[in-house]
């Protein structure tokens, strides 16, 4: 999770670090799914297996002071932005040592210290939040950028259009990152959008739009750097369209009856970002297994840390509640 030197491309050593980070996110979410199915974790759970290159590529391109707002599918974003696996796992277990001190859970992960303004159970909920943060940066004269992650379904939400309209009108330093996995929960994109290219929705506001393969972490990094440079220069916000793939259901336990039976298998064989980067780096089985063992040990330690964490006191249930 270490930040790389800021540049427009990634060296081979940086790509190996990116692979490690993507693999950590994958193994973390696989373990979380396992523990959720075992009944150890409360609430709902949404994983982003298959979308790791989006989180890692974008967050590695950010600079100190930049902030993000996430979605209900937030574990990867949180880890890529620097939250320690122990703190994230403790949050999922509802412990005080969690990044949101046990108040948030999977869909409300906050880590303001590390520039994560929070996950949001409301579809598209981070968009106006990021527009406001970016406006504050502009008014203060700070060279910071606010970044919002969201899915293709969120482009149908009123706050999406309101946020992009104001962001472009005010020329705020924001980057709107569409993780386009082609599913709005269980609705295919062809049935919820009348246009074939969702970038056109940003162009309708006169906003600069960039696109790339969201399964290629290097391409995501390079394109994000261009978006950040544009936003930071004072030229206004950018719509960053990442073509990605969701290799799991909308939520853990989703029967996925709406999806062709071989769709997930086909995508795993052809569009898994971890496999694609491993092949690009030419890692041997031994090298990959060594990397895998390292991150798996980190995840296992995070589970033990969480299980040994502190349960919140019942009398604290109403703390931080405002009306």
What does this structure look like?
With 323 residues, the chain is α/β, with parallel strands linked by helices. It has one domain (12-309): Rossmann fold, CATH 3.40.50. 44% of the residues lie in helices and 10% in strands. It is built from twelve helices and seven strands. A five-stranded parallel sheet has the order 1-2-3-7-6, with helices on both faces. The chain has a two-stranded antiparallel ribbon with strand order 4-5. Strand 2, helix 6 and strand 3 (174-180) form a beta-alpha-beta unit. Helix 1 runs antiparallel to helix 11 (273-281) and helix 1 (12-37) packs across helix 12. The radius of gyration is 19 Å and the shape is globular. The protein starts with 11 loop residues before the first helix and ends in a 16-residue tail after the last helix.
The tally of strands reads 7
Structural class: alpha/beta
How many domain regions? Answer: 1
Q: Rough shape?
A: globular
Give the radius of gyration.
Answer: 19 Å
Write a concise keyword list for the protein shown above.
two-stranded antiparallel sheet; five-stranded parallel sheet; alpha/beta; disordered N terminus; Rossmann fold; 323 residues
TL;DR?
The protein is α/β, with parallel strands linked by helices. 44% of the residues lie in helices and 10% in strands.
């Amino acid at each position: 999770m270490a930040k790389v030197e800021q540049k427009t491309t990634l060296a081979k050593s940086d790509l190996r670090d990116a692979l490690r980070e993507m693999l950590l996110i994958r193994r973390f979410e696989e373990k979380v799914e396992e523990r959720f199915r075992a009944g150890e974790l409360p609430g709902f759970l949404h994983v982003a297996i298959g979308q790791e290159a989006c989180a890692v590529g974008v967050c590695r391109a950010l600079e100190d002071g930049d902030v993000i707002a996430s979605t209900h599918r937030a574990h990867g974003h949180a880890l890529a932005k620097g939250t320690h696996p122990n703190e994230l796992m403790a949050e999922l277990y509802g412990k005080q040592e969690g990044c949101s001190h046990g108040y948030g859970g999977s869909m409300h992960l906050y880590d303001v210290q590390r520039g994560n303004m929070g996950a949001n159970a409301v579809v598209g909920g981070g968009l106006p939040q990021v527009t406001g943060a970016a406006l504050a940066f502009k008014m203060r004269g700070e060279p910071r950028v606010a970044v919002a992650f969201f899915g293709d379904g969120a482009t149908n939400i009123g706050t999406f259009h309101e946020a992009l309209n104001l962001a472009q009108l005010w020329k705020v330093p924001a980057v709107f990152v569409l993780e386009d996995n082609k599913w709005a929960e269980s609705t295919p994109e062809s049935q919820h959008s009348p246009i074939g290219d969702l970038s056109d929705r940003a162009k309708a506001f006169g906003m600069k739009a960039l696109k790339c393969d969201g399964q290629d972490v290097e391409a995501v990094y390079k394109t994000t750097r261009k978006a950040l440079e544009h936003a930071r220069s004072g030229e206004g916000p950018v719509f960053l369209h990442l073509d990605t793939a969701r290799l799991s259901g909308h939520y853990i336990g989703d029967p996925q009856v709406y999806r062709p039976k071989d769709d997930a298998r086909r995508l795993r064989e052809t569009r898994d970002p971890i496999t694609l980067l491993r092949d690009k780096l030419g890692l041997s089985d031994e090298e990959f297994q060594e990397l895998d063992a390292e991150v798996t040990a980190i995840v296992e330690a995070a589970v033990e840390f969480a299980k040994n964490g502190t349960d919140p006191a019942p009398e604290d249930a109403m703390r931080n509640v405002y009306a």
